[in-house]
Write a structure and sequence with these properties.
single chain, 7 helices, Arp2/3 complex 21 kDa subunit ARPC3, 179 residues, mainly alpha, two-stranded antiparallel ribbon
Length: 179
Amino acid sequence: MQDNPTKTGLICRYAVCLALLVVCAQITVPLPLTPVPVTLATFMIFAIGGLLGAKHGSLCVLIYVLMGLIGLPVFAGFKSLSALVGPTGGYILGFVPMTAIVGAAISKFSSPVLRFAGMAAGLAVLYVFGAVWYGFIMSVGFFEALMLTAVPFIAADAFKMILAYLVIVRLRKPAKEKN
């Protein structure tokens, strides 16, 4: 993808990424014993960070969060504000720093190992945001919150990370990568 897109091109990228994120958030698989469903939103967060970079990716995802905050039904299950203030709100808020970390890692490193490490770090930050929020809302400890809202998702999130990486590599222009 182009490093310095035109304003129109950037607006179009934001719009496409936001639309895909909203659609991916609706593709859910509920799991027993946890209120957090498996969604494809995490896949799109990885992809947005990798394709738009840290600055534009996190701004795009912040717009997504603000869309839900003002009442647009963009979150899983076509929820809006209720999802932000509920037990899964920390995950939605954690999408913003996750995107920034993923975007920085993909932009800065050319090594797949370092890129995956950066993507995993972004995912870890997401888990911390989600578990802390869940623990606060549900009055449970951090460890219990992690066991309920993060551990069951590690395998699926690793798969989504690999899939997103393949999409990122395919769509990004390989020239002028920064090390």
